[in-house]
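Entry for the shared binder. Reason: the reviewer on the internal report wants the predicted structure included alongside the sequence.
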Amino acid sequence: MEWIKLLSNERLHDRRYAEQPNRSIFTQDYDRIVFSEPFRRLANKTQVQPLYEHDHVHHRLIHSIEVGSVGRSLAMSIGQWLVEQGEIEAGEENSLANIVQAACAAHDIGNPPFGHSGENAIGAWFSDRFQEPSGIFSDLDETLRDEFRNFEGNAQGFRIVARTEMYRNAGGMRLSKAVLGAFMKYPLSAATRSVLAGGAISDAGYFGNKKFGLFESDQALFAEAAGTLGLPEIQSGDRRWWRRHPLVFVVEAADDICYNIVDLEDAFTTGELTFEIVRDALFDLAERPNRDTAGMSEAEQIALLRAISIGKAIQSCLEAFKDNYRAIMEGTFSRSLIEAGTLGGQFAQIKTLAGSRIFTARRKTELEVSGHRIIGNVLSGILPVYQQLADENWNAEELDEHPRQIARALSLDLRDISNPEQALHGMADFISGMTDRYALRISRMLSGT
């Protein structure tokens, strides 16, 4: 891959757009994302800790901003090294930083309410309907069903930024192709991933194939970006997928750094982990700094260690990028920068701690149980609208009074729905766009409680 292509500022579906002399397209991309409604809704979506009465734990909007900050710093360091190596022109390190910050801002924009358990709940609801499919479920092509059975917030995020937000069905936010490339962690569809899992295509274990990041209907949009960026395309029969853009690893590293470290800080804030446990984990990650903490509160000590740890993690990922540069540019690198860095062992220990103590905490478990029921209630409540829409040959004007009332009360967007695939995506758009609190309110309204 070549940086001259990878840093393309050409906009999706808008090749004629000219960059303003005082404001780069990549900066505009960031602005389009942070001023969008889907980004704003992240303020009321769970990160890991349930939305507490305590104001100091992280929700997805704060997390996304912090990931952007870390990603910008890491990308700037990588960019300066690339300039020194003669890989990019002086000044392009700023482009790297702006691209990564924009992609980081958008990285969770497709996530549903109630954290990652919300993804599981949506997938479980659709899976139940496909057990003995009827109506619009029986009419959906079998190859498309995994998009819903294994609902994926990454694919929903690409759908938002490239299709549904701003210029609907005409490029979405029309972000630069470089930002779209840096955003795309898993450049393949669910159907292609199913083929990979069956061993029909080589490189089935490639890191970028762990999940899927594209809905089948959005493949052409990403193919347009990938072609401009020069991402290697793998073709086998009628299935295709792409190698990751190098900056995906930077966005991913920033996310890994933030959630691993900040989850510990939040767990201390909520009392789920003791000061001693969090202090010791961060002290090790920060490479045992010799700082005078006399007179500092426990919270201040944790904040200090968090800041030092982030700085050390950025340096570790920078060195991992340098050490693996050739494989990254060839599209064959298949680990995360966190794992490949010198602090990989410390991060593995933090993940083990989080898995045993944070993700199994009582309040989080309660949230997941109630969130599963809430999401099921909402999807079951709106299903009759979409089923009757199908029965009426996709003519919304023919809906009966009750489905019409539901659509009006919830502002359901029934535009562009003319087949089962679009109908199910419309349902997924609605539920994944909800905040935790709004989902609870609508669940109660639809169930009459």
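Summary line for the report: Residues 48-53 have pLDDT under 50 and may be disordered.
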